[in-house]
Write a structure and sequence with these properties.
With about 140 residues, the protein is α+β, with helices and mostly antiparallel strands. About 35% of the residues lie in helices and about 15% in strands. The chain contains 5 helices and 4 strands; from the N terminus they run αααβαβαββ. It has a 4-stranded mixed β-sheet. The longest helix is centred in the last third of the chain and has 21 residues. It is elongated. It starts with a helix and ends with a strand. About 5% of the residues have low confidence.
C-alpha cells in the first residue's frame, strides 16, 4: 500500500537508459580470448591500405565508422581483429605488417569510442590477401 501511495510504478524506475543499460564487458586474458565462442564474421568492406603500409585511408576510416555503429548496436560482443598481408617479399616483414594493420584498425575503433577491452588485434600469417577480418564472439556460458 505504501508503494501505491507513493506513486510507485515499475516502468518508471528511471530513464530508459537506466533500465536498458548494458553492463560493460570485462577485460579478457589471452587464454579467455582463446575460449570465445565465435558468433560470426562481420561483413564489412575491405580496408584499403597503401601498398606495404598500415596507414588507414579515408575509405578505410569510413568503413570502420560503419563498423563502430554495428558494434554500438551489439555491446555484448567482443571483437577479434585479424590483419593480413601479402605473401610476396620478406615473410617476417609481412607478418609484422599484418599485425600493424590489425592494430591500426583496433586503435581507430577505440578512438571512436569502442571499449578497449572489447577488442583484440592479431596478425595473421600472410596469405596473399591484404584484408582485415573482424570476428565477433562472446564468452561461453
Amino acid at each position: 500500500q505504501a508503494m501505491s501511495d507513493a506513486g510507485f510504478h515499475p516502468g518508471q524506475l528511471g530513464s530508459e537508459e537506466d533500465v536498458r543499460k548494458e553492463k560493460e564487458l570485462a577485460a579478457l586474458s589471452d587464454s579467455d580470448w582463446d575460449k570465445l565462442d565465435v558468433v560470426g564474421t562481420l561483413k564489412v568492406d575491405h580496408l584499403v591500405f597503401p601498398r606495404g603500409t598500415a596507414i588507414l585511408t579515408q575509405t578505410s576510416k569510413n568503413t570502420l565508422d560503419q563498423l563502430v555503429k554495428k558494434l554500438e548496436d551489439a555491446p555484448h560482443f567482443y571483437l577479434l581483429v585479424t590483419g593480413n598481408a601479402s605473401t610476396k617479399g620478406d615473410v617476417e616483414a609481412n607478418t609484422k605488417l599484418a599485425m600493424s594493420r590489425a592494430n591500426a584498425a583496433r586503435d581507430y575503433l577505440i578512438e571512436k569510442g569502442i571499449a578497449q577491452q572489447r577488442i583484440k588485434a592479431v596478425g595473421g600469417k600472410p596469405s596473399g590477401e591484404t584484408v582485415v577480418n573482424f570476428v565477433v564472439g562472446q564468452m561461453p556460458y
